[in-house]
Amino acid sequence: DLGTDAQRYAPVQARLEDAFSVVGGSSATVDWRLPITVPSLENDRDKLIDEWLLLTDQNLPDVVTTDLVAKIRMWQPEVVLISTPNEKSATSKIVWDVVQEAVKSAANPTKYPHLESMVGLLPWPVKKVFSHTPGERGTEVISAQGYLARAGVTIDQWAEPAAARLLDRNEVAIRDEGLSLVFSRAPDLKEAELSLFGGLDIPAGGPARRTLSPVSLEDMEVRRNAIKNRVNFTHSAEKQMDSRTQGVELIAHLEETAQHLPADQGAKLLSDIVLGYRQRMLWDSAEQSSTLLLNLYPDHPAATESALWLLRFWTSSEMGWQRLRTRVSRQKTTQINPTIAQAQFEAQLKQSQRLPGELALPEVEQTPAAFETVEGAVRVKPKDFSALMKDDLSGSDLLTMQSEQWRTHATKVANLMEQASPGFFQEPDVQMSLVALLRRGSKHSDADRVIDQLLKLNSSDPWHMVALGETWTRRPQVRSPRPVVICRKTALAPRLDGKLTDACWVGAAEIQLSDQPPQGGDTEFVGTKEQSGKPGLQITGSRAMVMVLYDDRFLYVAGSMPRMEGQSKDPPQTAGRTHDSDLSRFDRLSFQFDVDRDYNTFYRFDVDQRGATSESCWDAVGWNPKWYVAPYGDDLSWRFEAAIPWEELVPSPPTSGTFWAAGVTRVIPTRGLQGWNHPLSETPSPQSFGLLRFE
Hints:
This protein is of the alpha+beta class. It has helices at about 10-20, 45-55, 60-75, 90-105, 115-120, 155-165, 220-240, 245-260, 265-280, 285-295, 300-315, 315-335, 340-350, 395-420, 420-425, 430-440, 445-455, 460-475; strands at about 80-85, 130-135, 140, 145-150, 155, 175-185, 485-490, 510, 530, 545-550, 555-560, 590-595, 605-610, 615, 630-635, 635-645, 660-670, 670-675, 690-695.
């Protein structure tokens, strides 16, 4: 069960069936009768069982075991494979116990006789049960790099297309699996029978075997050597990536190494290298290796994912600013030789003209592009480079030049995606990246036409609601179809103590958090409430709410969360705080800001009842901005005030009338979610974001 994040992966059943089919599986099902509906419920055995007993009319053991016994008798497996239980996961322990009980009951003719009498499912004795643990040793280890002779690929290559149907690319990790024998019907197994298939009689041509694909002995050794070279290079590259200098130098060897491998191995090599760079936040190298993958292997499935990542990466205002501000900071603190810098810059310009202009696409029917095709990279005259040598560099010159270059590359990739994969290109999340790209190029009419197409989606589709909200921003005079909150400019900065007693908060709009969408109401904007104007803010501890303000230096966020029964009452802590703390056991708030409304990339800030924090910027989970958080707590509620410097988010403060997309979610372990932008999920879902309007 995907729990509170199920919305992100819908339709789960169809994706699961598709994934199993890709790797040769026969069937896959999701048991929706036993959902995990609230955060961290899977880690609390007593509360989890109470919840499931309620859902099964106090008949949990019989309901679960009966279904598994029926499946065992229907499929008649020789071996059953289950996951080794995680010490912190109550669900994995329950599954572990239930599966072993079902295996024994499936072989017992006195158990569940109605399965035989009513549907003809005879008792079936499973011969062996194995547990598997990723990366662990056992009686047998299945190597991710094991060679599948009939498929001509390694196990991880075979499994990745299936995993990609269920997970995001950066979550896909096919690792070695350690197998351990848990149960055997034979009392004394020989050593050869301790393996997964040892001692099993599954003859070719029998009912349990598919028709075998032929094995090509002619090129087997060549392919084995290519795989060995690819694996060795990847392992060496991962070590070099941990050294920033060597990680950059690695790029120089990538193209030559990849081209000496068969196409599928070269694409796999580059795909793994790209992921390694992204995980380490080496963005320039990730950009170059992704482009190389796109240029060398445009027809490989990995190229589609790389094209999408590059489109989002080059379009994202959040990622663009984080890259630029790092360069600006480095410029301010480093002595630069203008002659050398000029030569390096011109060399980079020549290199940029290949990004990704060399892509060779298959012949397709030409269709009118949704926007202008750019044939070449942006050319900056040598004299323009002198702007980067200024002592008073504010970033505006670099921002203009580099942003234009990224926009050019993103436009090329978008056009290539539209031609090569028109169906994929029309996916709403891809189209919203296109909208942000068009707006950046001041093509607002073209962006509006894309939004108008999304309005044609089913009214229940979350992307239809996004389009409604975007349409409203053009003429925001009437009630919004999406949650909207006004972020007002304040002349008086709050004193950060977490108490929310400053006068500035009296005029702030209150974002009310709830577990269900608000029904009706007479407020101007959905999900917000104006303060009464009374002196001081009345904190009763009975309602969950968040407020936002800003001035020329900071974006201010404050919140008050009522204490929930059964939750930890850990007091505020300010000493020894670090970035990216583990907040999973605590009542916490997550707020997200999508500054360019591409509904794909955004900043995320989390703070819990102790004042501990965690942050990320899209793929960059290691992004550690400088911001200020003051926690406070009493018996009724926990509160916080936070100040985020503008330079951590954008080049300059937003002007009045600017809109951002934003999300706010409270996660209460074992209790549920509260939020402002519905439907709610523990992991932020951009298509459910509301709007933040600066005034």
